[in-house]
Amino acid sequence: MSSEQQNQSSYFQVPAKTVTANGVSYAYREMGPKGGIPVVFLIHLAGTMDNWDPRIIDPIAEKHHVITFSNRGVGASTGIVPDSIESMADDAASFINALGYQKVDLFGFSLGGMIAQSLVVKHPGLVRKLVLAGTGPAGGEGIQKIIAITYYDMLRATLIRQDPKEFLFFNRNTAGKPAARAFINRLKERTTNREAPIKLQAFQTQLKAIRRWGLSPSADLGVITQPTLIANGDNDRMVPSKLSGDMHRRIPGSELVIYADSGHGGIFQFHDRFVPVALEFLGR
């Protein structure tokens, strides 16, 4: 790794810790200045703590106490993966409570954004601000197609020996392909103490939970009074981009940022533009 990379990134060096809640040992990492309200990051489908882009985590951790963790049954966290988003939200609340925090900001990407929405509705007193990226609401049209899209892209990626996220998160064009490769390379910066990849059964359970979320009744997002920042690319194949606009209309006072010529991973492709927006929002 070049010295330039090392100077740019420190998330790859952060050791994991554990905390127990309701019989589950949660693996987590934290960095940044303590004392303020922490920003808890909720990861995507099949993701572990190693799947966070250091170019998002590091600059936010310069100003805020950042906490990442692996959901129950994923990575180094024990237990069995829940079969519903609502149970995942209860787990996240238990994890936050076990760390002793009464109030946090939530940063949810994709599946993590669904968990964040459920958490803020079920445990509103726990959340100060919400960042929802590459995600959609319960009952959102198109979310239920995620199993077919995911398996199709996994097959396409396998045939040419690439990471499925290059297909699922990025456009397959002159802008998207190099952005995808750069993102995948950033995820490889951590070379020690990496978490085990998600097991197939756990992955399938998460996929079914997302599909159930897409097929469930529409939630009343008007009850979300917390300041909310919504972000996505304009061509999200996993969670249709129009759902970001739908959430923006339904969450009072929310802000919406859409990045042109990008997909599900728009915030990673345009991390240099997104991070200042996120920092301004969190720091207000």
Structural descriptors:
8-stranded mixed β-sheet, alpha/beta, 40% helix, 284 residues
Number of helices: 11
Mean pLDDT: 95
* Classification by helices and strands: alpha/beta
Strand order, biggest sheet?
1-2-4-3-5-6-7-8
Alpha carbon gap, first and last residue: 36 Å
The unreliable regions are: 1-8
Order of secondary-structure elements: HEEEHEHEHEHHHHEHEHH
CATH structural class: Alpha Beta
Radius of gyration: 17 Å
CATH architecture: 3-Layer(aba) Sandwich
Percent of sequence in beta strands: 15-25%
Main β sheet profile: 8 strands, mixed
Number of strands: 8
- The name CATH uses for the topology is Rossmann fold
Shape: globular
* Fraction of helical residues: 40-55%
What is the CATH H-level superfamily? Alpha/Beta hydrolase fold, catalytic domain
- What is the number of domains? 1
SSE topology sketch:
Layout: H1 3-8, E1 17-21, E2 24-31, E3 39-42, H2 54-63, E4 66-69, H3 85-98, E5 104-109, H4 111-122, E6 127-133, H5 146-159, H6 165-168, H7 176-187, H8 200-215, E7 228-233, H9 242-250, E8 255-259, H10 266-269, H11 271-283
Parallel strand pairs: 3-4, 3-5, 5-6, 6-7, 7-8
Antiparallel strand pairs: 1-2, 2-4
Helix pairs in contact: 2-11, 3-4
Organism: Paenarthrobacter aurescens (strain TC1)
Protein name: Hydrolase, alpha/beta fold family domain protein
Domain AB hydrolase-1: 38-268
